[in-house]
From TrEMBL:
Name of the protein: tRNA (guanine-N(7)-)-methyltransferase
Positions of S-adenosyl-L-methionine binding: E136, E161, D188
Entry annotated with the keyword RNA-binding: no
Function statement: Catalyzes the formation of N(7)-methylguanine at position 46 (m7G46) in tRNA.
Organism (species): uncultured Sulfurovum sp
Amino acid sequence: MPHITVKPFDTACLKKGKYGKLQGTEVLFKAKDSFSSDELIAIKHENESFLLHLKKPLEEKPSSNTWLLKYDKVTRPLKVNLLKQAIADVSTGLNLDVLQSNITIHDTKVALSNKYEKSIEDFVDIEFPFESVAIEVGFGSGKHLLYQAQKNPERLFIGIEIHTPSAAQVLKQIQILDLKNIWVVNYDARLLLEMIPSNLCHQIFVHFPVPWDKKPQRRVISASFLEESMRVLAKGGRLELRTDSYKYFWYSMETFLGETVTKTAVEVRKNEALEVTSKYEARWLRQEKDIYDVYVTSIKKSESRRLDFNFSFGDIVYTKEILDKISYQAKIFDGFFIHFERLFQIDNDAILIKLAFGSFDRPEHKYIYLDKSTAYYFNTSPVKTMTNYKTHLKIMEYLNV
Ligand SMILES: C[S@@+](CC[C@H](N)C(=O)[O-])C[C@H]1O[C@@H](n2cnc3c(N)ncnc32)[C@H](O)[C@@H]1O
């Protein structure tokens, strides 16, 4: 991921405004971490907003007297070139003393088209102009996704991948192969699924999910994921899990046969050869590991899903009392939590709060911007789920002082 290391400089010279030869990078504000000397720089570039992170050495370790300017994980855009350009524009605009850089901007490389990249907001009123729809969760290198899309041009494939470089790589492949029937969404599939209309899909592939033996709350398969998958699948549609982990296989079986979904059809296969072998699968095959497939078929039509939750903050604006009201310990409620993680001071009249919240197995990570006249989620709103909405109302209670 793009970054540069620079000699320390006076950040007071970093003002709001446009930077770069083409004035394409706009600095919206900068925000100073209340717990360290790190700063965030809010950028707008080609209609996308994101944060850059200026990381400074800890005060007790001033020996390494260089600063790092890099991406912020929560708001990172899919197009790496945007990040590179923003870092380069800020650095040349301020005439920074660059000590090390991994930024070369490849204008000649395939520019990523927006057409096949979708954001969670797009799903609020998106149309699906295809005969049928399939979803692949965690497509990694995309081998299976690309193969399926080439083989079934009349079917739309929605690939959901949480790892940004993998999503960007596959987006490039889609352009190179000139495929018109894949959408890539760089988000947590467990959340995105809740934005998909009921009874839409024919298949949901989950191939070789990370088993997360030590952090089971991070697993893709869970009772609520099963429930959502069955809602999203049309009657007769299938959730297709493929795993090399015996433990994960049994965990999934327990989930699929558990109480959440009362009626399903579950089918198990062992060492079934598929038409395409993914990178992970090839590794397990070389090691002669067993591979398990579990197919769960949806056997009824589901009710449609409401998506009209409002994530605005109403009359809430920044007041100094908010600083006293916020505590940084996670707060647990019935079915959801709120964890205010960090506070960034923009100036005397504005702050940025970093927080994690929502359901325990599908948390959201966001920033909230507040000044004297407005408050909003920077840079995108949470996924429109009932749990997120309940959490949002609770967050408003904390900020309403
Ligand atoms: C072990 S890899 C398997 C990749 C691919 N399916 C294959 O068979 O080669 C698991 C993938 O799932 C992605 N992933 C993990 N949790 C996810 C989530 N909650 N939403 C979307 N993708 C996720 C990871 O980033 C990774 O690319």
